[in-house]
Amino acid sequence: MSSSTQTRVIAGIPVAITRKKMKSLRLRICSKTGMAKVSAPVRVSHNNITAFVQSNLQWIASQQALLAQQQATLKPYENGDTLCLLDTHVRVSTNHNAMKSTLQVVEKNNQGSPTHILLTTTPGDTYNKQTALLEKLFRTELKRAVAHIMAEYEPKMQLNVNEFGIKKMRTRWGTCNIQAKRIWLNLALAEHAYACLEYVVVHEMTHLLETNHTPRFWGLVEHFLPQWQKAHDYLGRQGC
Ligand SMILES: [Zn+2]
Q1: Are residues 67 and 85 in the same domain?
Q2: What integer pLDDT is reported at residue 12 of this predicted model?
Q3: Are residues 113 and 198 both part of a single domain?
Q4: How far is the CA of 195 from the centre of ligand 1 (A)?
Q5: Burial 53-81 (b: 16+ CB within 10 A, else e)
């Protein structure tokens, strides 16, 4: 995905630059990582992008500070909260004063997805302890879903993926190493709809048939996943 995204250091700060078909430069701060992101029309020069970022340094610093403040006050899950994991609403039960930090799946639906979990954490820094436990669950569930999607599309697309993995990525939803036939998916996809994950997996698999984002590439995506556009646009708005 977004093979035209590059990270450059401008005035001492890392900036993700994505070239797109658009009319003017756009700057925003990723709400998850705090990273500055510029979307630039294909033909704008690097010097122009640098000048644009430099004229907005104060704004970037203030937005990043604001985000850091918000993140510092993120609340831990409390008993009765719910979270969204792919398309499943998961009820959360908590215990903040346990002897050990653990995550237990209390209930699953008939597809095997957790619908109720128990998060127990030792006292102190509850938010970060819960986050670490949840990431493990998200990884497990994503792997299960990705394996399912690949098993469906490998015969349809007449190809094989050798290996896939899940990792945290700042600027991409997925990547594909064509020689190794290895696909990486962004851990953050766990918090979006199943249709989004399906799109990213099919997109990366399509790279095994067509390296670049050519008209043929998009034609293949359309052929294998006719409803791809909605997920593509939604994920584009989420940034990455
Ligand atoms: Zn791509």
Answers
A1: no
A2: 87
A3: no
A4: 17
A5: beebeeebeebbeebeeeeeeeebbeeee
Nearest to 118 by CA among 151, 84, 95: 95
When divided into structural domains, the chain yields a total of 3
* 3-state SS, residue 12: coil
Whole-number Å distance, alpha carbon 175 to ligand 1 midpoint, is 7
Range of the domain at 116: 81-137
Q: Of 17, 41, 72, which residue is a domain's last?
A: 72
Q: Are residues 64 and 87 in the same domain?
A: no
| Among 42, 72, 102, residue at a domain's last position | 72
pLDDT digits (tens, 9 = 90+) for 149-180: 999 999 999 999 999 999 999 889 999 999 99
Task: Encode pLDDT of 48-96 as tens digits.
Answer: 999 999 999 999 999 988 888 877 677 899 999 999 999 999 999 999 9
Burial 150-173 (b: 16+ CB within 10 A, else e): beebeeebeeebeebebeebbbbb
How far does residue 218's CA lie from ligand 1's centre (Å)? 10
Looking up residue 194, the CATH number of its domain turns out to be 3.30.2010.10
Distance 10 CA to ligand 1 centre (A): 26
Residue with the bigger pLDDT between 162 and 42: it is 162
Q: Residue 5 pLDDT > 70, yes or no?
A: yes
Residue-wise burial string across 89-105, b where 16 or more C-beta atoms lie within 10 A, e elsewhere: ebbbbbebeeeebebeb
- Examine the domain organization and report whether 124 and 164 are in the same domain: no
Distance 182 CA to ligand 1 centre (A): 13
Vertex 206 angle, CA 28 and 224, to 5°: 105
